[in-house]
Structure formats: C-alpha cells, structure tokens
Design brief:
29% of the residues lie in helices and 27% in strands. By secondary structure, the chain is of the alpha+beta class. Among the domains are: 181 residues, FAD/NAD(P)-binding domain (3-Layer(bba) Sandwich); 93 residues, no CATH class. Strands 1, 4, 5, 6, 7, 12, 13, 14, 15 and 16 form a 10-stranded mixed β-sheet that branches. The longest helix has 24 residues. The radius of gyration is 21 Å and the shape is globular. The structure holds flavin-adenine dinucleotide. The site of flavin-adenine dinucleotide has 41 residues, from helix 1, strand 12, strand 16 and helix 9.
Length: 408
C-alpha cells in the first residue's frame, strides 16, 4: 500500500484494552482489488462507520465501507463505552454558550440517542453486552453541590430524568462519600467492539461490502458524484461519501473548535464482592474527570487523567504512572474494591469547545459528509450522526441537523 492518504495517521491507542480486540469474533473482510461503485462510501469501520452503514443499508442504500485497519481496531477498541446522554458541557453552561433553546435540543437529542441505540440493539439482536444503567454525576471542581442542584433543576424542567442527591442520599444509594451528585436514568454501557462488529455484520447481510485494509488516498467531489482512489490505486465512485475517520481528520474536514488530547484507562480483574449500589456509571463534574463502570464479567473499568498531550510515545510512556494515579483515585472513592490492574491502555481523545460533535455536509466538498463525535460520549454522538447523515443521504432533513452542522 502506498503511504498517501486523505487522512492524517495517528497511533490511536497503545497498551491492551479489555475488549479482547484481536481475537473476539473477527469479521470477514476482503481486499479491494477492482474498481467499485455504490450509493455511499463510508470511510472508517469504527463505531461511527458501522452505525452509518447499518442505518444506510436499512434505508435501502448500497454501501461500501473501507478501513485501513481491521474493522473496530481504531479508537473504538480503546473506548470505555459508557453510553450517556450527559454531554461534557453541563446544560447550565451550554445554555450560556449557545442559548437555552439550542442547548436543550442538543441534550434532549443526546437522551433520545441512547434510547434509540437500546432499541436498535434489541431489534437487531446484537450480542454486545448492552446493559441499561443509571448514571451518577458526582460534584467536583467544575460543579459543586449548589451548581449541581441548579443543573438538576434545569434538566428536569426540559424533561430529562436527573435528580439531585445530597451526601446522605448518595451514601445510601451507592456507598460513596461525596457532597452531592445527580442520579440519571437512561444511560447504558456496552462492549464497543462487539457492538461495532454486530452492526457491520447486519450491514453486510444487507449487501454492504467491507474492504480492509483499504486506505482512501484521494477524493474528487463533483456536483453529481464523488470519485475516489485508494492508496493501492483502485477507483471508487459513489453518490456520496461519509468520513467516519474518528480522530484522524480527513483533508477538507474543518477542525475548528476541536482539539485532540490523550486519555488513559485500566480494567480490574473480575471483582469477587459487590461493587457499589447497582453498578451505576460514575463520572465527575470535574476537570479532568474520573469515570468508572462495571462490565458484564464483573470487572471495573476506570478512565480519565486526560492531558493536552499529542505525542503518542510520551502518552504511552506515561501509562504506568497514569494507572497508578487512577488506582489511587478509585481506592479513595471505593476503598473496598480490588483495584489491581488486569488491562491498561492509552488513547488519543478529542474534545470540542462546546462539548458538541460536528456532523453533516462538508461546507466546501459537494456530496461529502463527516462525523466528528468529539467528546466524552462520542458513541452517543455517533448514533446521532448516523441518524442525521442517513436522513440527509435520503434527501430528508433531520430537525436537529443545524445544531451539529459544520460551519464554513
Ligand atoms: C480511552 C477512551 C475512552 C473513551 N470512552 C468513551 C466512553 O466511555 N463513552 C463514549 O461514548 N465514548 C468514549 N470514547 C470516545 C469514543 O470511543 C469515540 O468517539 C469513538 O470510538 C470514535 O469512533 P469512530 O468510529 O468515529 O473512530 P474510530 O474507531 O477511530 O474509527 C475510524 C476508522 O477510520 C479509519 N480510517 C482513518 N483514515 C482512513 C483512511 N484514509 N482510509 C480508510 N480508513 C481510514 C481508521 O483506521 C479507523 O478504524 C472514548 C475514547 C477513548 C480513546
């Protein structure tokens, strides 16, 4: 394969994620060895590309998916996969940034996305350890108890199921010692690699083609079609292309307001005793925040310690120290658990200024679309992206498209 690529190249993750990425139920892929044509070419077979491919084939579009890695081996394999409607930017802050009406719609759409994913997983009978959860948002240096109470009131006023817990409620519900928290219904967790494979398999069953390794090198966007060339020199033609390339930005995709950083995570061994409460997702109103979840096989995954670091070698070198710091935090919060690390990994991460993703048509490239699901709930954003993009590909208009659109 030649090295030319339409996207930058990153070492998206190092270390060993808990998801058994290399061995669990590989999906069959084929090399691209001839020119190909479809309604839509999806570049990237992570969770974003898989959701788009599933949704597009469900609407009867013919789809080609290509990835220069194995499907699901990019950032998706590093994801801790807490599925939350709670956007990194609290509703009280987002309302100040973009206005109450727009902020409420973004939050409500995020809530609906997690519920829609639950329905999709059930309808397609995907075996991916999808588990409905409640979520605890602990007070921290970003929102203290007073602001958290205000955040809870604002959320409830627009119909979101978040309720305020004082310190004794929190201790009773989950055994955690913190001044306050918000408890929210409607979250979930999942095995992101199994979810991605399940979605891709459904798309393949509907006639989609999945080429890997196949790297997109060039794109010529015309008013009636998009012509593409892979690094191996094969030509592709489609009515539209969707860049679902995660944190490896494609040329022509505006990166305004987005920044890449580094994040670290580890998983414990399966716990012998009760974890906390009912195993709610836990995260903090803090910067940087700690986030915690359990897995179907009773492990605890802990992540956070994010830093504005873009050097992947330095990021990996920090892994032992970061795991040590995360262990210290979780031992402080949950002193009774076994915090021994069984898996540990580091990854590139992306955030946006307002905590919202960028989704939609690219301003300067006709018939080209992209999803940048940057933020702590990138998977929730990928669900929204698949809905908005496939509506656009079918000449419809999603009522929330404008909120997440790329700006010229
Ligand atoms: C440690 C960590 C923890 C996280 N935790 C959470 C969480 O708890 N909850 C949550 O919702 N989100 C979380 N996220 C974010 C979430 O994982 C990401 O938003 C999501 O995985 C991105 O998926 P993607 O499909 O967009 O990107 P990827 O999975 O990276 O897929 C993009 C694919 O595009 C391919 N590609 C790139 N360029 C080309 C090219 N030129 N030609 C062909 N293929 C190409 C790549 O090979 C890659 O496979 C976390 C992320 C990390 C790193």
């Amino acid at each position: 394969m030649s090295t030319s690529s339409i996207t930058e190249r990153r070492d998206l993750r190092t270390g060993t994620p808990v998801w058994n990425v290399e061995t669990s139920g590989e999906i069959s892929v084929e090399p691209l060895i001839a020119p190909s044509k479809a309604d839509v070419v999806v570049v990237g077979a992570g969770i974003s590309g898989a959701l788009v491919a599933e949704a597009a084939t469900a609407r009867g579009l013919s789809v080609i998916v290509l990835d220069r890695r194995q499907p699901g081996h990019g950032s998706t394999a590093a994801s801790t996969a807490l599925l939350q409607f709670e956007i990194d930017t609290p509703l009280i802050e987002l309302a100040d940034m973009i206005g109450h009406a727009q902020a409420s719609r973004a939050w409500m759409r995020s809530f609906r996305a997690v519920q829609d994913l639950a329905i999709l997983v059930r309808r397609l009978n995907l075996h991916c350890d999808f588990r409905p959860r409640r979520a605890l948002y602990l007070s921290g240096n970003r929102l203290g108890p007073t602001e958290l109470a205000k955040e809870g009131r604002l959320r409830r006023a627009i119909g979101l199921p978040s309720s305020f817990l004082n310190s004794s409620d929190l201790r009773n519900i989950a055994g955690l010692i913190r001044p306050a928290a918000l408890l929210s219904e409607g979250a979930a967790d999942v095995n992101p690699v199994a979810l991605t494979r399940g979605l891709l398999l459904r798309a393949l069953n509907r006639g989609s083609r999945l080429y890997s390794p196949a790297q997109l090198a060039e794109v010529v966007a015309r008013s009636d079609k998009v012509e593409m060339v892979t690094s191996a020199g094969f030509e592709l033609e489609a009515k539209a292309v969707v860049f679902a390339t995660g944190y490896e930005l494609a040329a022509g995709v505006p990166a305004k307001g987005h920044r890449r950083s580094s994040t670290w995570a580890f998983s414990t061994r399966p716990q012998r005793q009760t974890t906390w409460g009912e195993g709610q997702l836990i995260w903090e109103a803090a910067d940087p925040y700690l986030y915690i979840r359990t897995t179907a096989d009773r492990r605890i995954i802990v992540g956070g310690e994010d830093e504005a670091l873009n050097d992947e070698t330095a990021r990996h070198a920090l892994l032992p120290a970061k795991v040590h710091a995360l262990q210290g935090k979780i031992r402080h919060l949950l002193p009774w658990i076994d915090a021994t690390a069984d898996f540990a990994w580091a990854g590139t991460f992306g955030e946006s200024e307002d905590g919202l993703p960028s989704i939609g048509r690219l301003p300067d490239l006709p018939n080209c679309y992209a999803v940048l699901g940057y933020g702590g709930n990138g998977i929730t954003f990928s669900v929204i992206a698949a809905q908005i993009l496939v509506e656009a590909l079918c000449d419809g208009n999603d009522p929330d498209a404008e909120i997440f659109a790329f700006r010229a």
